């Protein structure tokens, strides 16, 4: 096992060498040749593009160390591409127009497999760099993954080595793959990868701060809009009140004063409560921040998202928000000017009325002083009454709690009694079923006896007819008892045979034999019908038991395997319940129409889980997104939701909407297959059996035939996660692999 781990680390080191040394050599050659073709020196290019580079630095896309390499201080060394690392060169190729790449290329869109342009291969090399940099050096990669990644990276490097190609590139690649390890080179690579991770860690912090600033700006914009709307409403109310109720100013003044005093008291109380709550929440937030800082300090691991993409996206969003803020400010300025004009008009009207009101106000003040004294006394009495009522309510609450506890105890006792009664009834039903089976057996015996009796009677009837025909003179006036014929039936048959031989009459016993055969067939049909009915009931009962057992085992398996997710990609080994943090991502349902032009698609926002399964035209749904956007987490959420829909637990009910439960309840079974864990299977039946059924508690009772029998009768959902990471096993399957989209 130790040798395998060492080989895996060697594979990782060789891949890092291929990307960092080989990739840097090719990208540096592309940058130099593009500048040479345009007859531009590096210094001229940097001088021309300085505004763009400064903007990238302000967004933290370029670090201070990288900026100093591009624009060294006075007296320092002139900039040279030989001093640039792979991250800086990729950044320059993507953002500088003078670098000669296609300025219309969409760097943030998912890569197409058929796109082999220089821009696409540069982006592929960047993705390979991010992927390899985030693999732990303690685990490394296995030989199969190493050979696959090496082939892909080697193809990209050869395609990029076109313009004034690097000589002996293939020889260098072979040396990277087969040469002996250099400890110094390995230490150099580890330091460079460590610097990448530190830089990306800082970028994550900056992104969080930018997101917080954006949310604050949005809140301020909302507050400004709300304030403007409130001012408009208040101005309209003032206009109407002044126009319609000038005569009622005295009454309004009294009511306003009373309301102001009451509201002022309430506001003070609310402010005190809010202060306490804020203090508590601030304390909690500080504790959470301290814990997160400790966790981040311990785990300098994997960075999930591409920092450059996020930064560019955030910059675009900030730009949009700034534009919206500017528009809002202009609108606010216009509205404020209108409000000022309306306010001036109101002031004039108020000034006229104030003169009239002042005299009344003096009189009102005296009356108000008297009334305030009375109100204070009444307020004190009300406070005392409220305190008494609150005490009574608390006492009533305690009584109610005790009553509820008693009722809950009674309900539990009733439930236990019901369970006992149900158990008794089930026992009685089983006893009744056993008695019914015995009665059926008795009835079947009686039917057999009746069939034998009918058979004998038919023999007797035939014998009587024959005797009347061949004995000569029939007996008149007497009816022969058929039951009396049993004793002489053998003699009668011998006599009939002798008479037919002497008289020359040919006698056939076919009618009697055919009747016997008919009776036998009727008896067999009766036995078969009874057996088929019994077998059908037993088979249906066995099917229902297997179906229930499979559903129970699947729910237990999914809750154990998929109910948690890592707290953070930087904190390994600290998983948390998925339902505590998971939120459905933003998704669009894309459906291609045959009648529309080629490539045109219809996008519909997915607002709920039921919308995911809304299509009636196809039974296949492909979920696509960039790496790290939560496709696997969404698959786990579907599995956990299915468990809650079919095997619900009350403590998790609050985490699931009714729509989600209803959507997953439509599927009797769900099978979640992780294709990244399967390299030898290509049949869905084999994948389900090897990944899921073998891990169930009752796996020995579930065969492939029984599973197929259940699925032929039920509606089910199969989720194939990581379809783009699965490689078709050519040596074990003769089917041709299909080109599948990224899942």
Number of strands: 6
Span of the ends, CA to CA: 33 Å
Spans of at least 5 consecutive residues with low confidence: 462-510
The averaged pLDDT comes out at 75
Strand order of the largest sheet: 1-2
Give the % helix. 55-70%
Biggest sheet features: 2 strands, antiparallel
- Shape label: flat
What is the count of distinct domains? 3
Helix/strand/pairing category: mainly alpha
**Quaternary:** single chain
Strand content: under 5%
> What count of helical segments does DSSP give?
19
Gyration radius from CA atoms, angstroms = 45 Å
Tell me what the structure shows.
The chain has 19 helices and 6 strands. The radius of gyration is 45 Å and the shape is flat. A two-stranded antiparallel ribbon has the order 1-2. It has a two-stranded antiparallel ribbon with strand order 3-4. It folds into 3 domains: 180 residues, no CATH class; 242 residues, no CATH class; 174 residues, 3-Layer(aba) Sandwich (Rossmann fold), CATH 3.40.50. The longest helix has 164 residues. Helix 1 runs antiparallel to helix 6, helix 6 packs antiparallel against helix 7 and helix 11 runs antiparallel to helix 13. It is mainly alpha-helical. Helix content is 68%, strand content 5%.
How do the strands and helices of this protein lay out in sequence?
Blueprint: H1 2-37, H2 42-48, H3 50-58, H4 64-70, H5 86-95, H6 118-133, H7 143-160, H8 169-178, H9 183-244, H10 249-298, H11 307-470, H12 489-503, H13 510-562, E1 564-568, E2 571-577, H14 578-581, E3 587-592, E4 601-606, H15 609-612, H16 631-646, H17 658-665, E5 669-674, H18 684-691, H19 704-713, E6 716-721
